[in-house]
Amino acid sequence: MHQTVLLREAVEALVTTSDGTYVDGTFGRGGHSRAVLQRLSADGHLLGVDKDPAAAAVAAELGATDSRFSFFHGSFAGLPAELASRGITGLDGILLDLGVSSPQLDDSERGFSFQHDGPLDMRMDTSSGETAAQWLARATEQDIATVLKEYGEERFARRIAGAIVSARAEAPIVTTGRLAKIVSEANPRWEKHKHPATRAFQAIRIFINRELDDLAALLAATLGLLKVGGRLVVISFHSLEDRLVKRYMRDMARGDALPAGVPVRDSALNRQMRLVGKSLRASAGEVAANPRARSAIMRVAEKIS
What we know:
Elements: H1 7-14, E1 21-24, H2 31-39, E2 45-50, H3 53-65, E3 69-73, H4 79-86, E4 91-97, H5 102-106, H6 132-138, H7 141-152, H8 157-170, H9 176-186, H10 198-208, H11 211-225, E5 226-236, H12 239-254, E6 273-275, E7 280-281, H13 284-289, E8 297-303
Parallel strand pairs: 1-2, 1-4, 2-3, 4-5
Antiparallel strand pairs: 5-8, 6-8, 7-8
Helix pairs in contact: 1-2, 7-8, 7-10, 8-9, 11-12
């Protein structure tokens, strides 16, 4: 069963006016969306967004019972064009709950988890794009190593990439179980309390789904989508995501970068957002009930100009 992380905290930070227009950029199974709708008036509206066809099916049920909710099946990177096509301008808030969801991890057919043997797919949108198996079958050893290093921060990226290339020469790598075994055997130092294939699976998933590219694209478009007073609320689950979000919010709140010592009024710095509170982590109680919440970190920023 899926447990929505930082549910109350995220919704409280997001919804500043009950008749506003909001986007849940990562609908998942609708946990955050349902909580947002509970806070909206009859004049409020929420657009859910998700790449996953399974999420789209859940969203269709919600939309059939609540006219304040609509859905876009696609990446949140496509939000600017989608909002323009719907005639929606000046959002009051955007919520992103990044990473892979529990239902996706728990479904062995999706290929996200090394704990369940199944087809090596890893696509969030199973209706399009290249599977992890297809990519691993054609990628060069250098490309595989680069992905493992950049998106998984894997110390033994080259060694593991070499093992993958050697193994695929014997037989195609088409299941999660086989990939996990290859990676585990190639990893010379297993971290305590962490499966040796964790970083590799994370890296390949992020690459296949263009997760960091999509996040960077949406962050770049955020100011143009929010109205003054509108908020961006982001829940991240690993350092690469959080680094992008933290840097973006910091830069928008800091304003124009000027050489040290240049005399300038604060009002002339062109600050475009303000940070709302400090970064927030799940409580000990939430982590005890849902271990996935352990790595979650939430950041909030508000557009001011």
